């Protein structure tokens, strides 16, 4: 199993580290390396993200078969903030993804 941030979340994540919004602020294609070390708000580390088709290709390249892809949704009664995402956002769009893969 492989858990990561959903590309949709990262496409809505401002480069300055501000809160996740409901608008695309960076390209979906070409996100590859995301460097948060110099973010003005809540600096962090370096992340890695591909579009979904990129993940499929990468898993195949390294010899994995995909069994499933899950995009968890926050429950209707969820509230508050988990990580960088508030419940209302996570009820509308996927913030995480879970790949179930196995070695071929």
Description:
The chain has one domain. 20% of the residues lie in helices and 28% in strands. It has 3 helices and 7 strands. The protein has helices spanning 7-11, 52-61, 87-92, and strands at 2-5, 33-35, 46-48, 64-70, 81-82, 85-86, 96-103. The chain has a 3-stranded antiparallel beta sheet with strand order 1-7-4. A two-stranded antiparallel ribbon has the order 2-3. The longest helix has 10 residues, at 52-61. The protein is globular, with a radius of gyration of 15 Å.
Number of domains: 1
Label the structural class: alpha+beta
Q: For the largest beta sheet, what order do the strands appear in spatially?
A: 1-7-4
Shape: globular
Q: Work out the helix count.
A: 3
Largest sheet: 3 strands, antiparallel
**Rg calculated over all Cα atoms:** 15 Å
> H/E order of the elements?
EHEEHEEEHE
Rounded mean pLDDT score: 91
What's the short story on this structure?
The protein is α+β, with helices and mostly antiparallel strands and 104 residues long. It contains three helices and seven strands, in the order βαββαβββαβ.
Q: Any key phrases for this structure?
A:
3 helices; alpha+beta; two-stranded antiparallel sheet; 104 residues
How would the blueprint of this fold be written?
Elements: E1 2-5, H1 7-11, E2 33-35, E3 46-48, H2 52-61, E4 64-70, E5 81-82, E6 85-86, H3 87-92, E7 96-103
Antiparallel strand pairs: 1-7, 2-3, 4-7, 5-6
């Amino acid at each position: 199993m492989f858990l990561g941030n959903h590309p949709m979340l990262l496409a809505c994540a401002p480069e300055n580290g501000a809160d996740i919004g409901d608008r695309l602020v960076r390209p979906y294609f070409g996100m590859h390396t995301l460097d948060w070390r110099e973010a003005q708000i809540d600096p962090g580390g370096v992340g890695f993200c591909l579009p979904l088709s990129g993940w499929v290709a990468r898993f195949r390249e390294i010899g994995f078969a995909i069994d499933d892809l899950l995009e968890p949704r926050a429950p209707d009664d969820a509230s508050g903030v988990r990580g960088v995402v508030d419940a209302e956002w996570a009820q509308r769009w996927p913030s995480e993804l879970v790949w179930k893969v196995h070695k071929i």
